[in-house]
Amino acid sequence: MFSGFHRLKDMGIMGINSRNLDFIAPHNRRQYYRLVDDKVITKKTAIEAGIPVPELFATIEYQEQLKRLGDILAQRSCNQFVIKPAKGSGGGGIMVIKGRTAAGYLRANGQVITLPEIQYHISNILGGLYALGGARDVAIIEQCIENIDLFDKLAFQGVPDIRLVIYKNTPVMAMLRLPTLASGGRANLHSGGIGVGLSMDQGMTTNAILHNQYITHHGDTDAPLLGHIMPDWDQVLDIGVKAAHMAKLGYVGVDIVLDKHHGPMLLEINARPGISIQIANRQGLKARISSMGL
Ligand SMILES: Nc1ncnc2c1ncn2[C@@H]1O[C@H](COP(=O)(O)OP(=O)(O)O)[C@@H](O)[C@H]1O
Ligand SMILES: [Mg+2]
Question: Residue 93 belongs to what domain range?
Fold first, then answer.
Protein backbone atom coordinates (compact mmCIF):
# COMPACT_ATOMS: atom_id res chain seq x y z
CA MET A 1 0.00 0.00 0.00
CA PHE A 2 2.80 2.42 0.84
CA SER A 3 5.31 1.30 -1.80
CA GLY A 4 6.78 3.42 -4.56
CA PHE A 5 7.98 6.97 -4.11
CA HIS A 6 5.57 8.67 -6.52
CA ARG A 7 2.68 6.72 -5.10
CA LEU A 8 3.58 7.97 -1.58
CA LYS A 9 3.70 11.53 -2.81
CA ASP A 10 0.31 11.09 -4.47
CA MET A 11 -1.15 9.86 -1.21
CA GLY A 12 0.01 12.93 0.67
CA ILE A 13 2.39 10.93 2.85
CA MET A 14 4.89 12.99 4.83
CA GLY A 15 8.46 11.62 4.68
CA ILE A 16 11.16 12.52 7.19
CA ASN A 17 12.75 15.12 4.88
CA SER A 18 9.46 16.86 4.29
CA ARG A 19 8.64 16.72 7.99
CA ASN A 20 11.92 18.43 8.80
CA LEU A 21 11.92 20.96 5.96
CA ASP A 22 8.24 21.82 5.50
CA PHE A 23 6.83 21.41 9.01
CA ILE A 24 9.46 21.46 11.77
CA ALA A 25 11.85 24.10 10.39
CA PRO A 26 9.22 26.77 9.60
CA HIS A 27 6.94 26.16 12.60
CA ASN A 28 9.20 25.14 15.49
CA ARG A 29 11.66 27.77 16.67
CA ARG A 30 14.77 26.30 18.24
CA GLN A 31 14.65 28.64 21.23
CA TYR A 32 11.51 26.85 22.43
CA TYR A 33 12.93 23.32 22.27
CA ARG A 34 14.29 23.50 25.82
CA LEU A 35 10.81 23.26 27.31
CA VAL A 36 9.89 20.06 25.45
CA ASP A 37 13.31 18.38 25.41
CA ASP A 38 13.43 18.35 29.23
CA LYS A 39 10.50 16.57 30.89
CA VAL A 40 11.10 18.33 34.23
CA ILE A 41 10.61 21.74 32.59
CA THR A 42 7.61 20.42 30.60
CA LYS A 43 5.97 19.21 33.80
CA LYS A 44 6.56 22.44 35.73
CA THR A 45 5.28 24.61 32.89
CA ALA A 46 2.22 22.38 32.39
CA ILE A 47 1.29 22.67 36.06
CA GLU A 48 1.50 26.48 35.79
CA ALA A 49 -0.71 26.32 32.68
CA GLY A 50 -3.31 24.20 34.50
CA ILE A 51 -2.64 21.07 32.43
CA PRO A 52 -2.87 17.82 34.46
CA VAL A 53 0.37 15.76 34.61
CA PRO A 54 1.48 12.68 36.58
CA GLU A 55 2.66 13.82 40.02
CA LEU A 56 6.42 14.33 40.39
CA PHE A 57 7.68 12.33 43.38
CA ALA A 58 11.37 13.29 43.16
CA THR A 59 14.17 14.24 40.82
CA ILE A 60 17.66 12.76 41.17
CA GLU A 61 20.38 15.07 39.89
CA TYR A 62 23.61 13.87 41.52
CA GLN A 63 25.19 10.48 42.09
CA GLU A 64 25.43 11.27 45.85
CA GLN A 65 21.63 11.45 46.11
CA LEU A 66 21.50 7.77 45.15
CA LYS A 67 22.73 6.79 48.64
CA ARG A 68 19.42 8.11 49.99
CA LEU A 69 17.29 6.48 47.24
CA GLY A 70 15.89 3.83 49.63
CA ASP A 71 14.64 6.62 51.94
CA ILE A 72 13.28 8.69 49.05
CA LEU A 73 11.25 5.72 47.80
CA ALA A 74 10.14 4.73 51.32
CA GLN A 75 8.70 8.22 51.91
CA ARG A 76 6.06 7.35 49.35
CA SER A 77 3.26 5.28 50.81
CA CYS A 78 2.41 3.96 47.35
CA ASN A 79 4.73 1.35 45.91
CA GLN A 80 4.09 2.21 42.29
CA PHE A 81 6.26 4.68 40.43
CA VAL A 82 8.05 5.27 37.14
CA ILE A 83 11.69 6.22 36.71
CA LYS A 84 12.60 8.05 33.51
CA PRO A 85 15.35 10.18 32.01
CA ALA A 86 14.32 13.87 31.78
CA LYS A 87 15.87 14.07 28.31
CA GLY A 88 14.96 10.59 27.07
CA SER A 89 12.97 9.63 23.98
CA GLY A 90 11.43 6.58 22.34
CA GLY A 91 10.82 4.91 25.70
CA GLY A 92 14.59 4.61 26.39
CA GLY A 93 15.50 4.24 30.07
CA ILE A 94 11.90 4.13 31.33
CA MET A 95 11.41 1.72 34.24
CA VAL A 96 7.88 1.02 35.48
CA ILE A 97 7.66 -0.27 39.09
CA LYS A 98 4.31 -1.82 40.00
CA GLY A 99 4.90 -2.93 43.59
CA ARG A 100 7.20 -4.22 46.27
CA THR A 101 7.99 -7.67 47.66
CA ALA A 102 10.42 -8.92 50.30
CA ALA A 103 12.90 -9.64 47.50
CA GLY A 104 12.76 -6.14 46.01
CA TYR A 105 10.73 -4.01 43.64
CA LEU A 106 8.37 -5.49 41.06
CA ARG A 107 8.70 -4.31 37.46
CA ALA A 108 5.74 -4.08 35.05
CA ASN A 109 6.80 -7.41 33.48
CA GLY A 110 6.80 -9.21 36.84
CA GLN A 111 10.59 -9.25 37.16
CA VAL A 112 11.99 -8.41 40.63
CA ILE A 113 14.66 -5.72 40.79
CA THR A 114 16.78 -4.82 43.81
CA LEU A 115 17.52 -1.36 45.18
CA PRO A 116 21.19 -1.51 44.02
CA GLU A 117 19.96 -2.41 40.53
CA ILE A 118 17.65 0.62 40.51
CA GLN A 119 20.53 2.78 41.75
CA TYR A 120 22.69 1.47 38.91
CA HIS A 121 19.92 2.23 36.39
CA ILE A 122 19.55 5.80 37.66
CA SER A 123 23.31 6.21 37.65
CA ASN A 124 23.23 5.36 33.92
CA ILE A 125 20.45 7.93 33.38
CA LEU A 126 22.54 10.62 35.13
CA GLY A 127 25.54 9.72 32.95
CA GLY A 128 23.48 10.48 29.84
CA LEU A 129 23.03 6.93 28.52
CA TYR A 130 19.48 7.75 27.32
CA ALA A 131 19.74 11.51 26.77
CA LEU A 132 19.68 13.26 23.43
CA GLY A 133 23.31 13.67 22.41
CA GLY A 134 24.54 11.72 25.47
CA ALA A 135 24.71 14.82 27.70
CA ARG A 136 24.43 14.56 31.49
CA ASP A 137 20.83 14.10 32.56
CA VAL A 138 18.43 14.09 35.51
CA ALA A 139 16.22 11.17 36.57
CA ILE A 140 12.52 11.73 37.23
CA ILE A 141 10.54 9.59 39.67
CA GLU A 142 6.83 10.10 39.08
CA GLN A 143 3.37 8.71 39.78
CA CYS A 144 2.61 5.50 37.90
CA ILE A 145 -0.54 5.84 35.84
CA GLU A 146 -3.30 3.37 36.72
CA ASN A 147 -5.02 2.00 33.63
CA ILE A 148 -8.69 2.55 32.86
CA ASP A 149 -10.54 -0.78 32.47
CA LEU A 150 -10.54 -0.62 28.65
CA PHE A 151 -6.74 -0.25 28.58
CA ASP A 152 -6.29 -3.07 31.07
CA LYS A 153 -8.03 -5.31 28.52
CA LEU A 154 -6.16 -3.97 25.48
CA ALA A 155 -2.59 -3.56 26.69
CA PHE A 156 -0.09 -6.06 27.98
CA GLN A 157 1.66 -5.11 31.25
CA GLY A 158 1.93 -1.38 30.83
CA VAL A 159 0.24 1.92 30.19
CA PRO A 160 -0.95 2.86 26.67
CA ASP A 161 -0.68 6.45 25.54
CA ILE A 162 -2.44 8.58 22.96
CA ARG A 163 -0.22 10.43 20.50
CA LEU A 164 -1.78 13.53 18.97
CA VAL A 165 -0.17 15.46 16.14
CA ILE A 166 -1.02 19.13 16.62
CA TYR A 167 -0.42 21.50 13.72
CA LYS A 168 -1.08 25.23 14.09
CA ASN A 169 -2.86 24.52 17.40
CA THR A 170 -5.26 22.08 15.70
CA PRO A 171 -5.28 18.28 16.31
CA VAL A 172 -4.76 16.68 12.89
CA MET A 173 -4.05 13.00 13.57
CA ALA A 174 -4.23 10.62 16.55
CA MET A 175 -2.94 7.18 17.47
CA LEU A 176 -3.33 4.92 20.47
CA ARG A 177 -0.17 3.04 21.37
CA LEU A 178 -0.30 -0.23 23.29
CA PRO A 179 2.51 -1.88 25.23
CA THR A 180 3.33 -5.49 24.34
CA LEU A 181 5.38 -8.25 25.97
CA ALA A 182 8.33 -7.05 23.88
CA SER A 183 7.94 -3.35 24.71
CA GLY A 184 8.56 -3.76 28.46
CA GLY A 185 5.70 -1.66 29.84
CA ARG A 186 6.27 1.23 27.40
CA ALA A 187 3.95 2.15 24.57
CA ASN A 188 6.54 3.51 22.09
CA LEU A 189 6.49 1.85 18.66
CA HIS A 190 10.28 1.62 18.59
CA SER A 191 10.16 -0.37 21.83
CA GLY A 192 7.77 -2.85 20.14
CA GLY A 193 4.42 -1.22 20.95
CA ILE A 194 1.29 -1.52 18.77
CA GLY A 195 0.07 1.62 16.97
CA VAL A 196 -3.70 2.00 16.53
CA GLY A 197 -5.19 4.74 14.34
CA LEU A 198 -7.92 6.86 15.96
CA SER A 199 -10.75 8.77 14.29
CA MET A 200 -10.59 12.47 15.11
CA ASP A 201 -14.29 12.95 15.82
CA GLN A 202 -14.68 10.45 18.65
CA GLY A 203 -11.34 8.74 19.14
CA MET A 204 -12.43 5.39 17.72
CA THR A 205 -9.79 2.73 16.95
CA THR A 206 -9.67 2.10 13.19
CA ASN A 207 -6.51 0.18 12.11
CA ALA A 208 -3.66 -1.37 14.08
CA ILE A 209 -0.01 -1.92 13.20
CA LEU A 210 2.87 -3.84 14.74
CA HIS A 211 6.27 -3.26 13.09
CA ASN A 212 4.42 -1.67 10.13
CA GLN A 213 2.22 -4.76 9.53
CA TYR A 214 -1.54 -4.48 9.90
CA ILE A 215 -3.07 -6.60 12.68
CA THR A 216 -6.57 -6.88 14.19
CA HIS A 217 -5.81 -8.46 17.60
CA HIS A 218 -3.19 -7.88 20.30
CA GLY A 219 -0.72 -10.77 19.96
CA ASP A 220 -0.17 -11.13 23.74
CA THR A 221 -3.73 -10.63 25.05
CA ASP A 222 -5.77 -11.71 21.98
CA ALA A 223 -7.91 -8.61 22.58
CA PRO A 224 -9.67 -7.32 19.44
CA LEU A 225 -8.23 -3.88 18.72
CA LEU A 226 -10.73 -2.18 16.42
CA GLY A 227 -13.97 -0.32 17.12
CA HIS A 228 -13.17 0.91 20.66
CA ILE A 229 -13.97 4.51 21.59
CA MET A 230 -11.60 6.52 23.79
CA PRO A 231 -13.29 7.96 26.90
CA ASP A 232 -12.90 11.69 27.69
CA TRP A 233 -11.97 12.34 24.04
CA ASP A 234 -12.76 16.08 24.14
CA GLN A 235 -10.53 16.47 27.18
CA VAL A 236 -7.74 14.56 25.42
CA LEU A 237 -7.93 16.92 22.41
CA ASP A 238 -8.10 19.93 24.73
CA ILE A 239 -4.92 18.88 26.57
CA GLY A 240 -3.17 18.42 23.21
CA VAL A 241 -4.06 21.89 22.01
CA LYS A 242 -3.15 23.51 25.35
CA ALA A 243 0.18 21.66 25.40
CA ALA A 244 1.13 22.79 21.86
CA HIS A 245 0.15 26.35 22.72
CA MET A 246 2.15 26.26 25.94
CA ALA A 247 5.20 24.97 24.05
CA LYS A 248 4.88 27.73 21.41
CA LEU A 249 5.54 25.12 18.72
CA GLY A 250 3.55 24.87 15.49
CA TYR A 251 4.10 21.17 14.72
CA VAL A 252 4.26 18.74 17.66
CA GLY A 253 3.43 15.27 18.89
CA VAL A 254 1.71 15.34 22.28
CA ASP A 255 1.60 12.17 24.42
CA ILE A 256 -1.40 11.78 26.72
CA VAL A 257 -2.23 9.01 29.21
CA LEU A 258 -5.61 8.16 30.76
CA ASP A 259 -5.56 7.55 34.51
CA LYS A 260 -8.38 5.57 36.11
CA HIS A 261 -8.79 8.12 38.92
CA HIS A 262 -7.40 11.37 37.48
CA GLY A 263 -8.52 11.22 33.83
CA PRO A 264 -6.37 12.37 30.88
CA MET A 265 -2.88 13.67 31.70
CA LEU A 266 -0.02 15.12 29.65
CA LEU A 267 3.07 12.89 29.51
CA GLU A 268 5.31 14.80 27.16
CA ILE A 269 5.58 16.97 24.05
CA ASN A 270 7.75 16.01 21.06
CA ALA A 271 9.16 18.66 18.72
CA ARG A 272 10.09 15.97 16.17
CA PRO A 273 7.14 13.55 16.11
CA GLY A 274 7.58 10.28 14.20
CA ILE A 275 5.74 9.57 10.95
CA SER A 276 4.41 6.01 11.53
CA ILE A 277 1.13 7.50 12.76
CA GLN A 278 0.24 7.79 9.04
CA ILE A 279 0.41 4.02 8.55
CA ALA A 280 -1.76 3.41 11.63
CA ASN A 281 -4.34 5.79 10.13
CA ARG A 282 -3.97 4.68 6.49
CA GLN A 283 -3.67 8.33 5.51
CA GLY A 284 -0.83 10.75 4.82
CA LEU A 285 -0.35 13.72 7.13
CA LYS A 286 -0.07 16.12 4.20
CA ALA A 287 -3.32 14.82 2.75
CA ARG A 288 -5.01 15.11 6.15
CA ILE A 289 -3.69 18.62 6.73
CA SER A 290 -4.74 19.85 3.31
CA SER A 291 -8.19 18.22 3.63
CA MET A 292 -8.62 20.24 6.82
CA GLY A 293 -7.73 23.44 4.97
CA LEU A 294 -4.73 24.16 7.26
N1 LIG B 1 4.00 7.89 34.71
C2 LIG B 1 3.89 6.81 33.94
N3 LIG B 1 3.10 5.77 34.32
C4 LIG B 1 3.00 4.66 33.53
N5 LIG B 1 3.64 4.50 32.36
C6 LIG B 1 4.43 5.50 31.93
C7 LIG B 1 4.59 6.71 32.69
N8 LIG B 1 5.46 7.52 32.02
C9 LIG B 1 5.79 6.85 30.90
N10 LIG B 1 5.20 5.64 30.84
C11 LIG B 1 5.30 4.65 29.73
O12 LIG B 1 6.43 4.96 28.94
C13 LIG B 1 6.04 5.43 27.63
C14 LIG B 1 6.93 6.59 27.16
O15 LIG B 1 6.82 7.69 28.06
P16 LIG B 1 7.19 9.18 27.67
O17 LIG B 1 7.09 9.99 28.92
O18 LIG B 1 6.37 9.62 26.50
O19 LIG B 1 8.73 9.10 27.28
P20 LIG B 1 9.49 9.02 25.85
O21 LIG B 1 10.01 10.39 25.61
O22 LIG B 1 10.60 8.04 26.04
O23 LIG B 1 8.47 8.61 24.82
C24 LIG B 1 4.58 5.82 27.81
O25 LIG B 1 3.88 5.73 26.58
C26 LIG B 1 4.09 4.80 28.82
O27 LIG B 1 3.80 3.56 28.20
MG1 LIG C 1 6.65 9.59 24.37
Answer: 55-144
